[in-house]
């Protein structure tokens, strides 16, 4: 093991539910191996088996943590099958431990990876391994080993490939100087806000053009006009609908003090369009 002054922190992201004994069992294994471990609960409320939601959560949360962190994600519909478990070592030093089902793919693609390993060293696992609970029997003890300063290369062989995550990109159509960007709802958060795959950066590419005005953009959910893009929730009265950019730069549809998902009966995959018209003379 590498000498270090303090163990790495361990973060946990699962779909087990906060009241589940599964989370407690994982923590028990970690603390038995590393009593001084600092364990941070990212979330245990990922929708069951929703790999996309877990991947987006990791994309948002992992970059704000420092190098001395082991990030663990257990949203694992393929547990017990031939699917691999991956350990990703980021250039900045953070470690990501996840099933090879696409959860880690966006971070691998957005942040330079120093190395990628297949977790196969059974000496690091619990003595008895359940075919349905690798979170406790593999992820937890390996995370404790890494947090204590264990060498990432000890977990298994270097690999070059990983399972991609299918993320559809918005489409852009320009006709008679009118630009229409069509995307979809990626995630519905616990407030009922609709988080889309349309970003501020994408809109700015067109809104900054001389013939198009971002300030005149109209957001449309399905066949319902939401209106222009606001700045913050306080731009509208309680119960009113608005579109705005969230803290990650994604277009969001919300109801102040309410739920856009309930108001519109919208869910993941719902179509969202942004129409940019040329400025009026």
From TrEMBL:
Any Pfam family: SAM_HAT_C
UniProt name for this protein: Adenosyl-chloride synthase
Sequence ranges assigned to domain S-adenosyl-l-methionine hydroxide adenosyltransferase N-terminal in this UniProt record: 10-156
According to its UniProt record, which protein family does this protein belong to?
A: Belongs to the SAM hydrolase / SAM-dependent halogenase family.
The alphabetized UniProt keywords are:
S-adenosyl-L-methionine
Q: Is the S-adenosyl-L-methionine keyword given for this protein?
A: yes
- SUPFAM superfamilies per the UniProt record, alphabetical: Bacterial fluorinating enzyme, C-terminal domain, Bacterial fluorinating enzyme, N-terminal domain
Q: Which InterPro entries match?
A: SAM_HAT_C, SAM_HAT_N, SAM_OH_AdoTrfase, SAM_OH_AdoTrfase_C_sf, SAM_OH_AdoTrfase_N_sf
Q: Which residues cross the membrane?
A: none
Chain coiled-coil ranges: none
Domain spans labelled S-adenosyl-l-methionine hydroxide adenosyltransferase C-terminal:
183-273
Q: Which domain of life is it from?
A: Bacteria
């Amino acid at each position: 093991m590498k000498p270090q002054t303090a163990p790495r922190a361990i973060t946990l992201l699962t779909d087990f539910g906060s009241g589940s004994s599964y989370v407690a069992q994982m923590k028990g294994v970690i603390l038995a191996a590393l009593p001084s471990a600092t364990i941070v609960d990212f979330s245990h409320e990922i929708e069951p088996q929703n790999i996309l939601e877990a991947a987006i959560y990791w994309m948002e949360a992992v970059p704000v943590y420092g190098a001395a962190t082991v990030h663990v994600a257990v949203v694992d519909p393929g547990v017990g099958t031939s699917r691999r478990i991956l350990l990703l070592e980021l250039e900045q030093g953070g470690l990501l431990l996840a099933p090879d089902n696409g959860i880690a793919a966006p971070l691998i693609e957005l942040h330079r990876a120093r190395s990628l390993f297949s977790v196969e060293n059974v000496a690091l696992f619990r003595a008895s391994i359940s075919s349905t609970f690798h979170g406790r029997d593999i992820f937890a003890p390996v995370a404790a080993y890494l947090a204590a300063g264990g060498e990432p290369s000890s977990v298994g062989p270097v690999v070059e490939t990983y399972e991609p995550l299918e993320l559809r990109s918005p489409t852009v159509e320009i006709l008679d100087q009118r630009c229409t960007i069509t995307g979809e709802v990626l995630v519905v958060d616990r407030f009922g806000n609709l988080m889309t795959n349309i970003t501020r950066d994408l809109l700015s590419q067109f809104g900054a053009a001389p013939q198009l005005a971002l300030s005149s953009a109209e957001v449309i959910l399905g066949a319902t006009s939401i209106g222009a893009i606001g700045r913050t929730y306080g731009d509208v009265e309680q119960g009113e609908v608005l579109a705005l950019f969230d803290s990650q730069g994604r277009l969001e549809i919300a109801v102040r003090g309410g739920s856009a998902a309930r108001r519109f009966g919208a869910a993941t995959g719902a179509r969202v369009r942004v129409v940019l018209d040329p400025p009026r003379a």
